[in-house]
Design brief:
Blueprint: H1 3-12, H2 21-29, E1 34-37, H3 46-53, E2 58-62, H4 66-78, E3 82-86, H5 92-104, E4 108-113, H6 121-127, E5 132-137, H7 157-161, E6 169-173, H8 178-187, E7 195-197, E8 205-211, H9 215-225, E9 229-233, H10 237-249, E10 254-257, H11 263-274, E11 280-283, E12 296-301, H12 308-315, E13 325-331, H13 333-346, H14 350-363, E14 374-377, H15 380-387, H16 391-403, E15 407-409, E16 413-415, E17 418-421, H17 425-434, H18 439-448, E18 457-458, H19 461-468, H20 472-484, E19 488-491, E20 494-496, E21 498-501, H21 515-537, H22 543-550, H23 563-569, H24 575-591, H25 596-603, H26 607-619, E22 623-625, E23 631-633
Parallel strand pairs: 1-6, 1-7, 2-4, 2-5, 3-4, 5-6, 8-13, 9-11, 9-12, 10-11, 12-13
Antiparallel strand pairs: 14-21, 15-21, 16-20, 17-18, 17-19, 22-23
């Protein structure tokens, strides 16, 4: 057993790695900048957590997904591995204490942080004292403007390399086209190009497109036929409720999930589904990040996604146990029109975006020329109601302001109550002697929680008030009084999205929108939507091949199990026979059009087999008759 496997077994209980995990680990451990491409569910976190345990120092993990960050930190702590995190919404003092601990505690192995934290003076001031062993960039596609989820804050990552030039970087993503792969390495200043990737092929997933005018009826058939756990994706919150209720009315265990629900409700719904107490979850794309439920038997999309990257990730949440699973997309002619309209909705006029930015500054009472790196609790609904703004237009305006680097808008963050003692123990003892009314509360805190002098520790006010036999309100009053005496810092539980001004607020007339950037963002969206439409409405190429070609894989094989392949299989020909006849037809017709009988003679293969392939090519638009009644190759 080598040193990597020993760590894997000791902390994670596995005796062998999945495909490519060990190769990625060896590469970064040897000091090489490395881009690891592993499909959804491929075990990306192991590729940095294992090598980081074998080197002194702390591993910086940069990720935009706060919920995922929290999950990973909690999971590491359960394994008695010290890990901590920095994210938007934390107080200055809390960030300062977290960084001090990461610098001074040799047992601290992981510091997770959101990318906007990288450019702050506080972080940069501590960076050289951090003893960083690796820089990990999760969701690395976010650094590329070619990617489907570009985030300007990711561009700050390269800047920290000048402060720690000898530290290798590991970039990880589940989905990236060739352009994005090259862009990631360039933007992160890789010393040498180094990509380790697993094929995106998922042989156990059946990719299926079902054209239907009655999606509800077909979804019901799917749910009745497939008794396993499932996910149904739709584009808006109202439909999640509508479809979940429809399924329940037909006797099927289902629930809905979307970003408009509070954190507690979302967590409860997610947990019931993970435990199998709810069979089908109907959701928006807010659901799924970090979900590792192995036995999902189907993922159904009732509407077209915004990109093939998003579709591939979402469909890839089924079949992680390597057993057969179904990724099915239900479409009709109306969907093509709806997704085209999405382009205009996603890009409000620049004048509208500027008005939203100006209203935002007024709403947050932020003077022009101030606000850089300031965080605000933010309610989109309250903001829109205050200024009589359309919620969808406003949301898309904020997303463009985000892509232009003016702001950052996070999802709702559930931050539990936290507490930290400020004085050293001797001075605290003196305080207890002087102010005896606080003595029982201080002793209760010290008995109930460890580490209060070193870090901010999660506390439970309900638990403490019961132990002290006082009301929760009185307990909080005592804690706030202790803040005034500079004895502790108490941060009450907070649940809200956070909005950060990544630059000082500009005067409206000085907001600069690059027309080229705006056009490029729009062009990229149009291009991605065209690829989605091609996938959904083509009927002459294997679905798996279409996806794999999109991600740059060369000469992928037909899957043999998608809807297109099944139609071909009905011809009664082997893959070799079909492809051989098709290639012969293509070569002949590219030279010159032919009459049917002439073409059959040129194929020089059993006539009935040739006719089957010709008919299939006609049905699927690959060949057609010209005005002279001759067949020609029509497929672009």
């Amino acid at each position: 057993m080598n040193k990597f496997t020993e760590i894997l077994t000791k902390y994670w209980g596995f005796t062998k790695f999945r495909d490519l995990q060990e190769e990625i680990i060896s590469s970064v451990f040897e000091g090489n900048d490395t881009l690891g491409l592993l499909p959804t569910g491929g075990g990306k976190s192991i590729t940095f957590q294992v090598p980081a345990m074998l080197k002194p120092g702390v591993c910086l993990v940069i990720t935009p997904l706060i919920a995922l960050m929290k999950d990973q930190v909690e999971n590491l702590k359960k394994k008695n591995i010290k890990a901590t995190m920095l994210y938007s919404g934390m107080s200055f003092k809390e960030i300062e204490v977290t960084l001090e601990n990461a610098c001074n505690d040799p047992e601290q192995k992981f510091l997770y942080l959101s990318p906007e934290r990288l450019g702050t003076d506080l972080f940069l001031g501590k960076l050289k004292s951090l003893k960083v062993n690796f820089i990990v960039v999760d969701e690395a596609h976010c650094i590329s403007q070619w990617g489907y989820d570009f985030r300007p804050s990711y561009l700050k990552i390269a800047e920290i390399r000048q402060h720690i030039p000898n530290v290798p970087i590991l970039a990880l993503t589940a989905t990236a086209t060739i352009d994005v792969v090259n862009d990631i390495q360039e933007k992160l200043l890789f010393k040498n190009k180094n990509v380790i990737k697993k094929s995106f092929e998922r042989k156990n997933i059946i990719y299926f497109v079902k054209h239907t005018e009655d999606k509800y009826s077909d979804l019901l058939k799917l749910a009745n036929f497939n008794k396993g756990s499932g996910i149904v994706y739709v584009r808006n919150r109202k439909k999640t409720v509508e479809i979940a209720n429809f399924l329940k009315s037909k006797g099927i265990s289902a629930d809905f999930y979307h970003a408009g629900l509070d954190i507690e409700t979302r967590n409860k719904k997610q947990e019931l589904w993970k435990l199998g107490k709810c069979r089908i979850i109907v959701c928006t794309n807010a659901f799924g990040m970090g979900i590792d439920k192995p036995d999902v038997r189907f993922v159904a999309h009732l509407e077209l996604p915004d990109s093939l990257e998003a579709y591939f990730q979402e469909a890839g949440r089924c079949g992680r146990d390597e057993k057969k699973a179904l990724g099915i997309l239900f479409v009709n002619d109306e969907d093509r029109k709806k997704i085209a309209e999405q382009i205009d909705i996603s890009f409000p006029p620049i004048s509208t975006i500027k008005n939203v930015y100006n209203a935002l500054g007024n709403y947050l009472q932020l003077p022009v020329g101030t606000g850089k790196n300031r965080s605000f609790d933010f309610s989109l609904i309250n903001f829109c109601n205050t200024f009589k703004l359309d919620i969808l237009t406003t949301y898309n305006s904020l997303k463009i302001l985000e892509k232009e680097g003016y702001i950052l808008l996070t999802d709702e963050i559930d931050s539990p109550s936290r507490l930290h003692f400020i004085p050293i123990r001797n001075s605290l003892y003196d305080f207890q002697l002087k102010f005896k009314k606080f003595d029982p509360i201080i002793k209760l805190l010290l008995r109930s929680y460890s580490g209060l002098f070193n870090d901010y520790v999660k506390i439970d006010e309900d638990f403490l008030s019961k132990k002290a036999n006082i009301s929760k309100e009185l307990l909080i009053k005592y804690l706030n009084e202790l803040i005034k005496h500079n004895i502790l810092d108490y941060l009450p539980r907070k649940k809200s999205p956070v909005l950060i001004f990544t630059e000082d607020r500009f005067d409206e007339k000085n907001i600069i929108f690059s027309p080229n950037n705006y056009r490029e963002l729009k062009r990229n969206l149009v291009s991605r939507i065209e690829q989605v439409i091609n996938y959904a409405y083509s009927n002459n190429k294997c679905r798996s091949q279409l996806l794999l070609l999109y991600f740059g894989e060369e000469n992928p094989f037909r899957c043999g199990i998608c809807d297109v392949c099944l139609q071909r299989n009905e011809l009664g020909l082997s893959n070799f026979e079909f492809d051989n006849i098709l290639e012969t037809i293509k070569n002949e017709l590219l030279i010159q059009p032919c009459e049917l009988n002439e073409l059959i003679e040129k194929i020089n293969i059993k006539k009935e087999k040739s006719i089957k392939v010709i008919q299939w090519l006609l049905d699927h638009g690959k060949i057609a008759y010209n005005k002279h009644n001759k067949l020609h190759w029509a497929h672009k």
